Amino acid sequence: MKRFVRQVYTGEGGYVFARSPEEIARLNGLSGLCRLASNENPLPPPASVVEAGLSALREGNRYPEARPDALIAALRRCHGDYSFIIGNGMDGVIENVVRTVVDPGDRVVVSTPTFSFYGLAAEAQGGVVVPAPREADFSVDVRAFVEACRGAKIAFLCSPNNPTGNALPVETVREILDGIDCLLFLDNAYVEFSGIDYRLLMDEYDTLIEGRTMSKAYSLAGLRFGYAFVPEALLPYLNRAATPFAVNVVALAAVGAALAEQGHVDLTAARARVWRERFLAGISRPVAPSDANFVLVDVAPMTGDEAAARLAGKGVIVRSCRSFSGLADHYIRVSIGSDRENEVFLEEINRL
After folding, report:
1. Is the Cβ–Cβ distance between 238 and 97 less than 8 Å?
2. Inter-residue contact 188 to 156 (CB < 8 Å)
3. What is the model's pLDDT at position 19?
4. Domains plus CATH for the chain?
5. How big is the CA angle at 63 (ends 73 and 77), to the nearest 5 degrees?
6. What is the pLDDT of residues 148-196, one digit of tens each?
7. Three-state SS for 158?
8. Is the sign of the CA dihedral 279, 280, 284, 285 positive or negative?
9. Residues 102/281, Cβ–Cβ less than 8 Å
10. Is beta strand 316-317 parallel, antiparallel or unpaired with respect to 294-298?
11. Do residues 333 and 36 touch, judged by C-beta distance below 8 A?
12. In angstroms, rounded to a whole number, what is the distance separating the alpha carbons of residues 73 and 64?
């Protein structure tokens, strides 16, 4: 059957998932695992959000609206009068954008190391992925990034960046936008933890797309909802290329309710700030400064895989960063979890 498969999928590529906590618990005979591998929010959704989702489930026999006007209106109440697309998680939004703009052979620039799905989505459309490596401190070399974008169709930049955690100043993104003539997809999946607002750039540039998710600060990872601020002129084409009924009725209802619960987001962001500082002070290994809900820890001379396996044996599930192209193989990424999970992690990481 392999002869029927596109060459891009016959190798060892594809998105690399963290091992499931259930699998690790089964293999090690553990319970009460500390789930710190997937940048999830340890706080459950507010009661109003749960109730909205449960109520919508009663209409689960019907397809969702093709154009969910009520949800778009909720996004505008939250953010302002912008144009939006929605999708099945940030991944679905990325796929929609890439499907709309990338032809086979088009140059797609990706600032690395970063989230692998940008490159995977581009390759799926036949795009040619061009990595633009970050500096040793994980900052972006603006001149090199702009140079890499010459002749490109679209470029991807994550801020705060996954897995390094650092955010770019608004002025740095503006400098990049001034220097390139391609589209820029700015992935802001973790922006609520940073205190930085890039939305004003949407008013200044018609080549900027700003991606967001409800998976992190809003505690809705399991409902898979992403959205993006998009240039109004691009909106009709993105809608034409979108997957039909990509977002289910439960997610639409829950997200609409969650957007009104900004106190939950503020609490989540405040917890992240406190625990980032505790991780920086309490981990006896180099920790990269972070603006997100996770930190990057240097575990050399161990590899990321070795450190993740040893921590898993103690019931602490973290993410090895071996699969992040352009990052040395001695890092782990650690999410900010519940107070108990964080305390257990601090104890076990310092025993390695």
Report:
1. yes
2. no
3. 62
4. 2-44+262-349 (3.90.1150.10), 58-258 (3.40.640.10)
5. 10
6. 999 999 999 999 999 999 999 999 999 999 999 999 999 999 999 999 9
7. strand
8. positive
9. no
10. unpaired
11. no
12. 16
In degrees and rounded to multiples of 5, residue 269 shows phi and psi of -65, -40
CA distance 217 to 336: 11
Start-to-end CA distance of the chain, whole Å, equals 45
Tokens of 80: 């302002």
Classify 156 as helix, strand or coil: strand
CB atoms within 10 A of CB 97: 27
The whole-angstrom separation of Cα 154 and Cα 124 is 15
- Residue 310 identity (one-letter amino acid): R
In one-letter notation, the amino acid at residue 34 is C
CA angle 112, 115, 118 (to 5 degrees): 90
Q: Which two tokens stand for residue 28?
A: 């090690």
- For β-strands 208-213 and 183-187, DSSP reports them as parallel
Cβ atoms of 102 and 1 within 8 Å: the answer is: no
Nearest CA among 200, 136, 203, 213 for reference residue 171: 200
In angstroms, the CA 165 to CA 289 distance is 7
The per-residue pLDDT string of the chain (352 residues; one tens digit each, 9 = 90 and over) reads 877 687 777 766 666 666 666 666 666 666 689 999 999 999 999 999 999 999 999 999 999 988 899 999 999 999 999 999 999 999 999 999 999 999 999 999 999 999 999 999 999 999 999 999 999 999 999 999 999 999 999 999 999 999 999 999 999 999 999 999 999 999 999 999 999 999 999 999 999 999 999 999 999 999 999 999 999 999 999 999 999 999 999 999 999 999 999 999 999 999 999 999 999 999 999 999 999 999 999 999 999 999 999 999 999 999 999 999 999 999 999 999 999 999 999 999 999 9
Q: Which residue has the tokens 């891009």?
A: 8
Taking only the tens place, the pLDDT of each residue in 8-36 is 777 666 666 666 666 666 666 666 899 99
